[in-house]
Amino acid sequence: MANSGEQILPKNQVRGLPMAREFKRGSINWRGLRWLLIVSGALVVLPTANADEPSDKSDAAPPEIESQENVEYGKAGDVSLKLDLYRPKQQEPDARRPALVFIHGGGWQGGRKEDFGGLAADAARRGYVAVTIDYRLAPQHHFPAAVEDCKCAVRWLRAHADSLGVDPERIGAIGGSAGGHLVMMLGTMNKKEDGLEGNGGWPEQPSNVQVVVSYVGPTDLLADYPPISQRIVERFIGGDRDSMRDAYRRASPVTYVDASDPPMLLFQGTKDPLVPFEQAYLMACALTKAGVPGRVELILGAGHGFAPPEMKRTIDATFAFLDRWRRSK
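The structure corresponding to this sequence follows.
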């Protein structure tokens, strides 16, 4: 899936881009695949530096924005849940900006909040308040732990809307791979009765979001997957599909789709070796039936992540979609 680590862009162009590794179609390098799943989850995340080198924090935040690292947004038992915050420096005292929650991939078993640092910084330059979050990982923490943590992060944003200058009615979520699944869970589980709120904190705040962007995220965990993906899902849920069908159903974004869901933008490659492109089609059918606005884009020949020219185009399309959404509010 990825090669042995050779960069295809100069280092100073790799930082902040979603892909720093070559993507070979038609073959899977299993060592590279393990890096993809366990370290950063998908080639749609944004490493702040070369994955083989220490992260350089000195240039994490450009001069026009400010950042704050390792802010506790909740507690799950004895686990401290952390996020990194990025926002524009110049802001009117009473201004209310839209906010974005970035959720990393990693097969629900790996990845880190820093994976989306580059894109979150870019969002802040564009006028958004952005957070990248960590969440509890499998197999130590099975479903619904990750969903509960993501919901807690949204509640934290609303609870601190005044101090952060955030419009609590304009919060979006962006994720890749497993993170794409989690942002779709946020989008479709938009009513209190949908449950899975957890006890992380800020229970007085709602956890719904107003727009969703998913890169190659699975939508129906009860469907058929390649064997390697099925094993990943089993570790996330805590058992196999036959013995835990109800948990698989409750962990599937498509289960909760209804007319109240927010606009969604989904990207999916038709040669994805981990998430079959039919997953995007299933979600497209459910959203269409419910009358939910948005767009589902199938990228012919692409795998579980996109090469740099296509990735740049999808990022531009993402912000165009988000900008139309925030102007409509």
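The longest helix spans residues 308-328.
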